[in-house]
Each structure stands twice: as C-alpha cells, then as structure tokens.
UniProtKB/TrEMBL annotation:
Pfam families, per database record: FabA
Protein name according to UniProt: Beta-hydroxyacyl-ACP dehydratase
Transmembrane segments annotated in the record for this chain: none
Superkingdom of this protein's organism: Bacteria
Family (UniProt): Belongs to the thioester dehydratase family. FabZ subfamily.
Entry-linked InterPro entries: FabA_FabZ, HotDog_dom_sf
C-alpha cells in the first residue's frame, strides 16, 4: 500500500534509522499495518561475535513500531501527506510487554491503532508480530506534534 519511497516522503528518517520497509494496510485516522525485515546486515549486528545468537534490540523494535505510528499520524486528517511545519515527538509509552526474541531473518509486522486524538496529541496502541506470534504489545503510546522552530530551532525540512 505504501512503498519505501512514500514512507521516505512522510518520515524524516534515513539509513540506518529508517526502520519501516512497507505499509501493507492503512485506514487513515484509524489503523495501520507495517513491515520491517530484520537482516544480519543491520548496523546493530556489526560487532556481534560469530558464535553468539544475535537478537534484535528491544529499543529498535520500539523505534520501528513508533515510526509506524508516525506514518499513521501522517496519513490522517489535516496531516494527510505530512506534518507541515511541525515535528512529531514520541512522548511516552505505557503497558509495554515483550513476549519473544527477534532475530535476523524475521519480518516484524507492526499493528498500530489510533485510539484518541486531542488537538496535537495522539494516543496509539498496538502490537508487533513475527510469523503470527506476538513479540511486543503496547497499551498506550503518546505522540505529540510541536512547532518545528521550537524544537529544532528552524522550520521543518531545513
């Protein structure tokens, strides 16, 4: 549904921190399903010894899920097509649970739902699956849109 080119147009992230490969389902303002293929060529595995079992870092799993939430935010309502002169900030998360390890060769499937929107604050919930098994659940994530000049010291995109 959304190619990597469209994802790159909506998010400011680039290699090595663009952690969403494709959006396979999206209902703007409601829900989104995105995928990220984990490969052994990721920078996080650069110094992993050959005799160890490389696990995908939980922090990158959460970041990838958060980027999926940002894509859902970018597709909805007046934000359709991006955030204009604002930036989206990750505020907090609650009820996070990890249920299994992720390894190179796995494909993360992020399920994100917009549960509430209050002005420039958005509340999301969801989970991540690998081969149909939940590896991560999130009860609530708060993301907030803020003027880019106040955050970056310059207008967005500069």
């Amino acid at each position: 549904m959304l190619s990597v080119q469209r994802i790159r147009a909506l998010l400011p992230h680039r290699y090595p921190m663009l952690l969403v490969d494709r959006v396979v389902e999206a209902v703007p303002g409601e829900r989104l399903v995105a995928r990220k293929a984990v490969t052994v060529n990721e920078p996080c595995y650069a110094d992993v010894a050959d005799d160890t079992d490389p696990r995908y870092p939980a922090s990158l799993l959460v970041e990838s899920w958060g980027q999926s939430a940002a894509l859902l935010a970018a597709l909805g309502g007046e934000r359709a097509g991006g955030f204009g002169d604002k930036v989206l900030l990750f505020g907090s998360m609650a009820g996070a649970e990890f249920h299994g390890d992720v390894h190179p060769g796995d494909v993360l499937e992020h399920h994100v739902s917009l549960s509430r929107e209050a002005g420039d604050t958005l509340l999301f919930e969801g989970h991540t699956e690998v081969s149909g098994n939940r590896v991560f659940e999130l009860e609530r994530a708060v993301l907030a849109l803020r003027p880019s000049e106040g955050v970056l010291g310059r207008p967005a995109g500069m």
